[in-house]
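Record type: monomer structure entry
Structure origin: computed from sequence
Chain ID: A
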Amino acid sequence: MSAKEEKTAVTDLENGRVHGAGLPDVKEPSPAPERAGGITRRKLMGYLLAAPTLVAAAQWDAAPAEAAIPSVQVTNALDLSDVLTLAALPTANMISVTVNSDGTASFALPRAEVGQGITTAVAMTIADEMDLPIEKVKVTLADARPELLFNQLTGGSNSMHSIFGPVRTAAAAARSRLLEAAAAELRVSEWDIRARDGVFTAADGRTATFGSLARKAAVTRTVAVNPKLKAAGALAMVGTDQRRIDALDIVTGRKQFAMDLDVADALPTMVCRPPTINGTVLGVDNAAEVRAMPGITDVVAIPHSQFVAGGVAVRGRTFGQCIDAVRALKVRWGGSPVAGKSDDSVLADLRKSQIPLTPALPGQTIDETFTFHFRPGDPLETNCAVADVRKGRAEIWSCLKSPVWAKEQIALLLRMPLGNVTVHVAQGGGSFGRHLFADAAFEAAVISQKMGKPVKLMWHRTDNFRQGRVHPMCISRVRMTRLGSNVLAFDQRHTGVATDFTHGLGELLTAMDTSLPLQNFLQFSEAVFTLTANVPYNFGVVTQLLSEVYDFKQFNTSSVRNIYSPDVRTSGELMVDRMAKEMGRDPVEFRRAFAKDDRLRAVIDKAAQAGSWGRSMPAGTAQGFAVHAEYKGRCACLVEIDCRPETVNRKVERGYTGPRVTKAVFVVDVGLPINPLGLKAQMMGGIMDGIAQALSYGLHLKDGHFLEGSWDDAFYTRHWNTPPELEVIVMPPTTGEPGGAGELGVAASMAAVACAYGRATGTMPTSFPINHGREALGFEPFPNVPPIPESPVDGLAKAHIKRPKKRRTTKPRAKRKHAGKRPPAKKKPTAKKD
């Protein structure tokens, strides 16, 4: 068959062409109107790859991206999602769908699954395009593939936005080739065949399964094709609620994370860490004594570097034995780059580094500065990795969102050829930006090499809080200028501790470049801020500028969920409330009047209506409202908060209470929602983050270390502070492609809670979390020497769970010799006579 014969007509979802399953387009409708902003009218080339069974891939064509003329802000024309998608394009053809002889379709996902549900969304996309049951689509996580360059980075809520088109095209190419093979097998025209549930059926009832055609449809050379994509109306699964494909494994405990992997001879390993952030080991006084403790096999010092946190590593038979060994170590520590630093001293440095505002335009101004303290970037799963480094080779297992960079950097750390290093991407128990860095993988690899043995490294929860990566402390100054009924200008100056972006775009070259002096800020911090920070209103002249203090190596920071946006949006929305009040206008009506586009107005209207905005509420309670636009999406959040003394002063054993959000309504428009059920779950998680970050979730820095050492200390949203009423509304499709969702729910939620608190108390909050510095700590900090607490032995008691009493087991009675009859009575012993 010639290449020409293998080509089929292109069907582009955005252009809305319609067709029947397996049929060419009947007519060519007029193209859809151009959309302002971002990259539009994308086309993809399909590829049939030479392989034993059918393998299909996709590649973008060379058509230039089109964008609207930039308005006041860069994000109207180009945002972070566009940049990440463009970076992935050159290797999009390396993403392939394989049809197997058992009738399944396999896809090795070049992204990390960390609970956001992209494996389910990708499986839905493939199943829909191929007419396969979703249970026959097998999605795994791809090992690190350096040839993918920037196309294995998971971040910026970009996964489905960047991968949806290539995956659809690869699936459509596979289906098209199977259709040709089925027509040849059944000796009928392709027009006379229908596909359903992985089976082609001819008009006369004869069938051919995808599995039976997999080898016959394979090609011996790579061929370019233009596959026919289904029209939007023909997609039966995309846009419908779908339970996670791994849900059963999660709830039954079968889902495997890094610590569940059974790697031969990999024993539990932990690290004794310094008492201050990024301290160094000078020596160990009792290494031999600790090595002789029960179960301990190895004790080695690990130097601190940019890539390895370091400390003294111990390897033992159980993690409990490792904890005992870590606590027993007597280590001499060197200095810390943040020795003596505290919240107050960092805040003073931030204030000195603010970029001045430009002269105000004529009119009335309001001006305020907001403080956002350090907060944890800790997912549920602590940092962990398995490493086996022996005999000139290395094999690593860890949750990694930049696996290409991880593999390349590990090869450098171990001084090995890249081909001798294998990096497997494990499923992750959360990330929130944490796993953009491969800290655990780097450390495990170095420890394994030094010990000459496989290790199963796990950070203690206290390690994560005190030495892990955090959201940087920052201040944000906002000035708004109005004249009459118009807002003339919105100026924002955001100043923060440096956010570490030295993972680059997920590979070694940009990572090394970002590590050069000043490059972290000049090439990444400024770019990410400019491409994400935005004001979603028509407020005239808008300026938003970033400055940062300290070198990225001083504090351990990362792109914690939603990066700059929660703080930028919270300070901005509080000032929007204040300006509305100054102008005598309702906060929601004010937002709607100045909203930039119809999509934003639609979510505002829906949230206000669903949440009954403006209803009468008791004193000490109030509603709050906020909006956010990012990741090609729009969202609006309405909350109700109770700040009355009887609520604030509730008593919960070993728990923090404070003000309570009693209701949350969140409306989200992501363009094309692939799995609305998963999208709702994402927004719910974002709402919990927003509540916590506004009210209670933060870190206290004192003498170069954080006081918090666990979830109990940091006061994340717990069940007694979650809203009894919570509703997430997913808007119908507004575009032909999915926007980002993983981080979209945080900024608007945090801002809405802050606005509600201000309305309920009559005082606009300016420091976050609101409880930081206003109240006593509320917990007793763990000592920082030893660096981790003892293993708890009262967990069940704290949870008010009583151990079931052991049942007394009785031996089965012997069979009676006199069945059915009363056994003869035993003679009573008689006392002997003297």
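Annotation 1: The chain has a mean pLDDT of 89.
Annotation 2: The longest helix spans residues 159-186.
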